[in-house]
Write a structure and sequence with these properties.
With 282 residues, the protein is of the alpha/beta class. The chain has helices at residues 29-49, 102-109, 121-134, 151-160, 166-173, 194-207, 224-239, and strands spanning 11-16, 55-59, 87-91, 113-119, 138-147, 163-164, 184-185, 211-215, 244-250, 253-260. The protein is built from 7 helices and 10 strands. The chain is globular, with a radius of gyration of 19 Å.
Protein backbone atom coordinates (compact mmCIF):
# COMPACT_ATOMS: atom_id res chain seq x y z
CA UNK A 1 0.00 0.00 0.00
CA UNK A 2 1.15 3.56 -0.68
CA UNK A 3 1.95 5.35 2.57
CA UNK A 4 3.36 8.77 3.47
CA UNK A 5 4.18 8.38 7.18
CA UNK A 6 7.59 6.86 7.88
CA UNK A 7 8.46 5.06 11.11
CA UNK A 8 12.25 5.20 11.16
CA UNK A 9 14.90 7.90 11.27
CA UNK A 10 17.33 7.20 8.42
CA UNK A 11 16.60 5.43 5.14
CA UNK A 12 19.01 3.72 2.77
CA UNK A 13 18.46 2.55 -0.80
CA UNK A 14 18.97 -1.16 -1.58
CA UNK A 15 19.03 -2.22 -5.24
CA UNK A 16 18.35 -5.93 -5.62
CA UNK A 17 19.48 -8.21 -8.48
CA UNK A 18 19.49 -5.62 -11.26
CA UNK A 19 21.47 -8.03 -13.43
CA UNK A 20 21.05 -9.15 -17.02
CA UNK A 21 20.61 -12.83 -16.16
CA UNK A 22 17.27 -11.97 -14.57
CA UNK A 23 15.12 -12.29 -17.66
CA UNK A 24 11.61 -13.38 -18.52
CA UNK A 25 9.55 -14.67 -21.45
CA UNK A 26 7.09 -11.77 -21.36
CA UNK A 27 7.34 -9.95 -24.71
CA UNK A 28 7.78 -6.52 -23.12
CA UNK A 29 10.55 -7.57 -20.73
CA UNK A 30 13.26 -5.41 -22.31
CA UNK A 31 10.99 -2.36 -22.17
CA UNK A 32 10.17 -3.11 -18.53
CA UNK A 33 13.86 -3.37 -17.72
CA UNK A 34 14.52 -0.01 -19.38
CA UNK A 35 11.74 1.57 -17.34
CA UNK A 36 13.09 -0.06 -14.17
CA UNK A 37 16.58 1.31 -14.81
CA UNK A 38 15.10 4.75 -15.42
CA UNK A 39 13.33 4.67 -12.04
CA UNK A 40 16.25 3.22 -10.08
CA UNK A 41 18.66 5.80 -11.50
CA UNK A 42 16.38 8.59 -10.27
CA UNK A 43 16.34 7.08 -6.78
CA UNK A 44 20.11 6.61 -6.80
CA UNK A 45 20.55 10.26 -7.67
CA UNK A 46 18.34 11.41 -4.79
CA UNK A 47 20.12 9.27 -2.20
CA UNK A 48 23.57 10.35 -3.38
CA UNK A 49 22.43 13.96 -3.32
CA UNK A 50 21.50 13.41 0.34
CA UNK A 51 24.95 11.94 1.01
CA UNK A 52 23.66 8.42 1.62
CA UNK A 53 25.65 5.55 0.08
CA UNK A 54 23.66 3.23 -2.17
CA UNK A 55 23.73 -0.51 -1.46
CA UNK A 56 23.70 -2.81 -4.49
CA UNK A 57 22.92 -6.51 -4.00
CA UNK A 58 24.27 -8.96 -6.57
CA UNK A 59 23.14 -12.55 -6.95
CA UNK A 60 25.82 -15.18 -7.56
CA UNK A 61 24.80 -18.40 -9.24
CA UNK A 62 22.12 -19.64 -11.61
CA UNK A 63 18.79 -17.85 -11.34
CA UNK A 64 15.33 -19.40 -11.28
CA UNK A 65 14.35 -17.25 -14.26
CA UNK A 66 14.40 -18.24 -17.91
CA UNK A 67 17.95 -19.32 -18.87
CA UNK A 68 19.94 -16.30 -19.98
CA UNK A 69 21.56 -16.51 -23.40
CA UNK A 70 24.85 -14.71 -23.14
CA UNK A 71 28.10 -14.51 -21.20
CA UNK A 72 27.37 -11.18 -19.49
CA UNK A 73 24.55 -12.35 -17.23
CA UNK A 74 26.25 -11.20 -14.03
CA UNK A 75 26.58 -7.64 -15.34
CA UNK A 76 24.13 -4.95 -14.35
CA UNK A 77 21.19 -4.04 -16.53
CA UNK A 78 22.36 -1.78 -19.32
CA UNK A 79 22.22 1.81 -18.17
CA UNK A 80 22.14 1.20 -14.43
CA UNK A 81 24.09 4.09 -12.91
CA UNK A 82 26.18 2.12 -10.41
CA UNK A 83 29.11 4.19 -9.13
CA UNK A 84 32.46 3.21 -7.57
CA UNK A 85 31.31 4.53 -4.18
CA UNK A 86 28.33 2.18 -4.01
CA UNK A 87 28.49 -0.70 -1.55
CA UNK A 88 28.11 -4.14 -3.14
CA UNK A 89 26.70 -7.09 -1.20
CA UNK A 90 26.81 -10.60 -2.69
CA UNK A 91 24.11 -13.17 -2.00
CA UNK A 92 23.25 -16.74 -3.02
CA UNK A 93 19.57 -16.95 -2.01
CA UNK A 94 16.43 -14.88 -2.52
CA UNK A 95 16.67 -13.17 0.86
CA UNK A 96 19.40 -10.55 0.65
CA UNK A 97 20.02 -10.87 4.41
CA UNK A 98 20.55 -14.63 4.51
CA UNK A 99 24.24 -15.52 4.94
CA UNK A 100 25.36 -12.03 3.80
CA UNK A 101 26.77 -8.95 5.51
CA UNK A 102 23.84 -6.74 4.45
CA UNK A 103 22.60 -6.24 8.01
CA UNK A 104 26.08 -5.22 9.19
CA UNK A 105 26.42 -2.80 6.26
CA UNK A 106 23.09 -1.15 7.04
CA UNK A 107 23.85 -0.90 10.76
CA UNK A 108 27.23 0.73 10.13
CA UNK A 109 25.58 3.27 7.82
CA UNK A 110 22.98 4.03 10.46
CA UNK A 111 20.07 2.92 8.29
CA UNK A 112 17.06 1.78 10.30
CA UNK A 113 14.86 1.89 7.17
CA UNK A 114 15.50 0.59 3.66
CA UNK A 115 13.86 1.37 0.33
CA UNK A 116 13.86 -1.68 -1.93
CA UNK A 117 13.94 -1.75 -5.72
CA UNK A 118 15.03 -4.17 -8.45
CA UNK A 119 13.99 -7.72 -9.42
CA UNK A 120 11.94 -9.81 -9.00
CA UNK A 121 9.05 -8.18 -7.10
CA UNK A 122 7.44 -11.25 -5.52
CA UNK A 123 10.64 -13.23 -5.04
CA UNK A 124 13.94 -11.62 -4.08
CA UNK A 125 12.56 -8.15 -3.35
CA UNK A 126 9.68 -9.36 -1.19
CA UNK A 127 11.87 -11.98 0.50
CA UNK A 128 14.30 -9.23 1.46
CA UNK A 129 11.38 -7.09 2.66
CA UNK A 130 10.32 -9.70 5.21
CA UNK A 131 13.94 -10.52 6.03
CA UNK A 132 14.37 -6.90 7.07
CA UNK A 133 11.35 -7.08 9.38
CA UNK A 134 12.88 -10.12 11.10
CA UNK A 135 15.91 -7.96 11.88
CA UNK A 136 13.89 -4.94 13.08
CA UNK A 137 14.84 -2.90 10.02
CA UNK A 138 11.84 -1.11 8.53
CA UNK A 139 11.43 -1.96 4.81
CA UNK A 140 9.55 -0.18 2.04
CA UNK A 141 8.98 -0.94 -1.62
CA UNK A 142 9.85 1.84 -4.06
CA UNK A 143 6.78 2.59 -6.16
CA UNK A 144 7.19 1.54 -9.81
CA UNK A 145 10.80 0.52 -9.17
CA UNK A 146 10.49 -3.28 -9.15
CA UNK A 147 9.49 -5.64 -11.96
CA UNK A 148 7.95 -9.06 -12.04
CA UNK A 149 6.66 -11.76 -14.35
CA UNK A 150 3.43 -9.77 -14.76
CA UNK A 151 2.27 -6.23 -13.99
CA UNK A 152 -0.55 -7.59 -11.82
CA UNK A 153 1.99 -9.32 -9.57
CA UNK A 154 4.07 -6.16 -9.24
CA UNK A 155 0.91 -4.26 -8.32
CA UNK A 156 -0.06 -6.94 -5.81
CA UNK A 157 3.40 -6.74 -4.21
CA UNK A 158 2.91 -3.04 -3.63
CA UNK A 159 -0.46 -3.73 -2.00
CA UNK A 160 1.01 -6.31 0.38
CA UNK A 161 4.14 -4.28 1.21
CA UNK A 162 4.33 -0.71 2.43
CA UNK A 163 5.30 1.38 -0.59
CA UNK A 164 6.72 4.88 -1.00
CA UNK A 165 6.37 7.26 -3.92
CA UNK A 166 9.32 9.40 -5.03
CA UNK A 167 7.82 12.54 -3.51
CA UNK A 168 7.75 10.95 -0.04
CA UNK A 169 11.33 9.74 -0.44
CA UNK A 170 12.53 13.19 -1.53
CA UNK A 171 10.81 14.79 1.46
CA UNK A 172 12.45 12.35 3.87
CA UNK A 173 15.88 12.89 2.31
CA UNK A 174 15.47 16.66 2.25
CA UNK A 175 16.27 16.91 -1.48
CA UNK A 176 14.26 18.43 -4.35
CA UNK A 177 11.97 16.19 -6.35
CA UNK A 178 13.26 15.28 -9.79
CA UNK A 179 10.98 16.56 -12.59
CA UNK A 180 8.97 13.74 -14.13
CA UNK A 181 10.59 12.49 -17.32
CA UNK A 182 14.11 13.54 -16.34
CA UNK A 183 16.89 11.18 -15.36
CA UNK A 184 20.19 12.67 -14.18
CA UNK A 185 23.39 11.03 -15.36
CA UNK A 186 26.59 11.71 -13.47
CA UNK A 187 29.51 10.84 -15.70
CA UNK A 188 32.80 10.86 -13.81
CA UNK A 189 36.08 10.80 -15.71
CA UNK A 190 37.51 8.41 -13.12
CA UNK A 191 35.10 5.74 -14.40
CA UNK A 192 36.80 3.41 -16.90
CA UNK A 193 33.71 3.66 -19.13
CA UNK A 194 32.66 7.27 -18.54
CA UNK A 195 33.06 8.29 -22.18
CA UNK A 196 31.22 5.20 -23.42
CA UNK A 197 28.30 5.89 -21.08
CA UNK A 198 28.03 9.39 -22.48
CA UNK A 199 28.25 8.30 -26.13
CA UNK A 200 25.77 5.44 -25.66
CA UNK A 201 23.23 7.79 -24.11
CA UNK A 202 23.47 10.18 -27.04
CA UNK A 203 23.26 7.35 -29.59
CA UNK A 204 20.13 5.99 -27.91
CA UNK A 205 18.37 9.34 -28.03
CA UNK A 206 19.46 10.12 -31.60
CA UNK A 207 18.08 6.77 -32.78
CA UNK A 208 14.80 7.48 -31.04
CA UNK A 209 12.85 10.70 -30.89
CA UNK A 210 15.65 12.77 -29.41
CA UNK A 211 15.68 14.04 -25.85
CA UNK A 212 17.90 15.34 -23.09
CA UNK A 213 19.78 14.23 -19.98
CA UNK A 214 21.87 15.74 -17.21
CA UNK A 215 25.64 15.41 -17.07
CA UNK A 216 27.65 15.85 -13.88
CA UNK A 217 31.13 17.31 -13.70
CA UNK A 218 33.91 14.84 -14.44
CA UNK A 219 36.71 15.14 -11.90
CA UNK A 220 39.66 17.08 -13.15
CA UNK A 221 37.56 19.58 -15.12
CA UNK A 222 37.20 23.07 -13.69
CA UNK A 223 33.53 23.71 -14.25
CA UNK A 224 30.43 23.52 -16.42
CA UNK A 225 31.97 25.13 -19.50
CA UNK A 226 34.84 22.63 -19.53
CA UNK A 227 32.41 19.75 -18.97
CA UNK A 228 30.16 20.91 -21.81
CA UNK A 229 33.10 21.37 -24.16
CA UNK A 230 34.60 17.97 -23.45
CA UNK A 231 31.22 16.27 -23.90
CA UNK A 232 30.49 17.98 -27.22
CA UNK A 233 33.95 17.13 -28.55
CA UNK A 234 33.65 13.45 -27.60
CA UNK A 235 30.19 13.16 -29.17
CA UNK A 236 31.32 14.85 -32.37
CA UNK A 237 34.39 12.64 -32.65
CA UNK A 238 32.64 9.32 -31.97
CA UNK A 239 29.22 9.86 -33.61
CA UNK A 240 29.66 12.85 -35.89
CA UNK A 241 26.72 14.58 -34.18
CA UNK A 242 26.36 18.15 -33.03
CA UNK A 243 24.51 18.47 -29.73
CA UNK A 244 23.55 21.25 -27.38
CA UNK A 245 25.35 21.21 -24.00
CA UNK A 246 24.52 24.07 -21.62
CA UNK A 247 25.23 24.57 -17.89
CA UNK A 248 22.04 24.61 -15.76
CA UNK A 249 20.88 24.17 -12.20
CA UNK A 250 19.12 20.81 -11.77
CA UNK A 251 17.59 19.89 -8.41
CA UNK A 252 19.92 22.35 -6.68
CA UNK A 253 22.95 20.79 -8.40
CA UNK A 254 25.11 22.48 -11.02
CA UNK A 255 25.33 20.31 -14.11
CA UNK A 256 25.22 20.35 -17.90
CA UNK A 257 22.05 19.63 -19.86
CA UNK A 258 22.77 17.75 -23.09
CA UNK A 259 20.04 17.96 -25.75
CA UNK A 260 20.03 15.52 -28.65
CA UNK A 261 17.96 15.80 -31.83
CA UNK A 262 16.51 12.82 -33.68
CA UNK A 263 18.93 11.63 -36.32
CA UNK A 264 17.86 11.33 -39.96
CA UNK A 265 19.87 8.12 -40.34
CA UNK A 266 20.71 5.28 -37.90
CA UNK A 267 23.46 6.05 -35.41
CA UNK A 268 25.67 3.06 -34.66
CA UNK A 269 28.28 2.95 -31.93
CA UNK A 270 30.48 -0.17 -31.76
CA UNK A 271 27.72 -2.08 -33.49
CA UNK A 272 25.36 -1.75 -30.54
CA UNK A 273 21.59 -1.33 -30.78
CA UNK A 274 19.92 1.10 -28.41
CA UNK A 275 16.30 1.30 -27.32
CA UNK A 276 15.40 4.79 -26.11
CA UNK A 277 12.93 5.02 -23.25
CA UNK A 278 12.06 8.57 -22.28
CA UNK A 279 15.31 10.07 -21.01
CA UNK A 280 17.36 6.95 -21.66
CA UNK A 281 20.47 6.35 -19.57
CA UNK A 282 23.34 4.06 -20.50
Amino acid sequence: MIITDLYGKKMGLVVIDAQRKFCNDRPDWSEKVDELVFRINRLMFMFRQAGRPVVVVQYEGVTHCRPYEGTDGDEYFRGLAVEPGDIVVTKHTMNSFKETDLEDVLRKLGYDMILLCGTVSQYCVMSTYFGALDREIIPYFAHDATISTADEITAASEIVCKTLEESTVAQHLGVPEIPEGDSPVWVDSTYPDWSERLICTVAALANGEGGHFMLGYPKGLKGPEATAGKAKSAIKEELGLDVSAEPIDFCSQDCVEVRVSKSGSPVVYHGNRFVPVRTYVV
